[in-house]
UniProtKB/TrEMBL annotation:
InterPro entries given in the database record: UDG_Type-4/5, Ura-DNA_glyco_family4, Uracil-DNA_glycosylase-like, Uracil-DNA_glycosylase-like_sf
Originating species: Rhizobium leucaenae
Domain of life: Bacteria
Pfam families: UDG
CDD domains with a match to the protein in the record: UDG-F4_TTUDGA_SPO1dp_like
A molecular-function term among this protein's GO annotations: metal ion binding
Name of protein: Type-4 uracil-DNA glycosylase
Similarity comment: Belongs to the uracil-DNA glycosylase (UDG) superfamily. Type 4 (UDGa) family.
Keyword terms: 4Fe-4S, DNA damage, DNA repair, Hydrolase, Iron, Iron-sulfur, Metal-binding, Nucleotidyltransferase, Transferase
Parts forming coiled coils: none
Amino acid sequence: MLDKHSSPDTGPSLKPDHADAATLGELRHQAESCTRCDLYRNATHLVFGEGPETAEVVLVGEQPGDKEDLSGRPFVGPAGRLLDACLNEAGVDRDRCYVTNAVKHFKYQMRGKKRLHSRPNAGEIQRCAWWLGAELELLKPKLVVALGATAVSSLLGSKVRVMRDRGSILHPLGELDILVTIHPSALLRIREADEKERSRLAFIQDLKKIRNFLRH
Ligand code: URA
């Protein structure tokens, strides 16, 4: 297991190669006309991060889902409601955190009339790290929470594994603390009730670590 001081293959978002803007508002404005990959073509909105500019903690998900794409806001659909409930049980106020995604446009496939989520590929994650890296540069949070494999890949590269490293706080460039945990949608996919509850409690345990990074 990688410990707090190990240096995994660092993800693109922590390298200096990111957008340049003086404020989050300006960065969002730039991102709204993003054509760095093809995902903008079929998306309704670019879903930029949301939360206080002074946030000490940044939560990073994978990409917007159907509801987020339609509303233009991160984590407002079923995974977002579950995240809110688990944060609440962990004693963390979402309103004090900045919430964003590794990829900022919804990627999906049509199945009949439904838009089904598709995982972003490595190229899409890398191109979108242009925006995530700049968000982190402007916010300079004390802790970044990587929710699931896409966020982990963007922030920490390919050597970190969610199920092996979850619950660990990694320290890739000596600058940022990054807490690795699962994505809340993983809980939504579990059918068996006991396993679902065990996994939910383990997720809440991970989220409790955030409290040490929030000023009281
Ligand atoms: N899943 C994510 O990763 N991000 C969202 O904003 C919504 C669902």
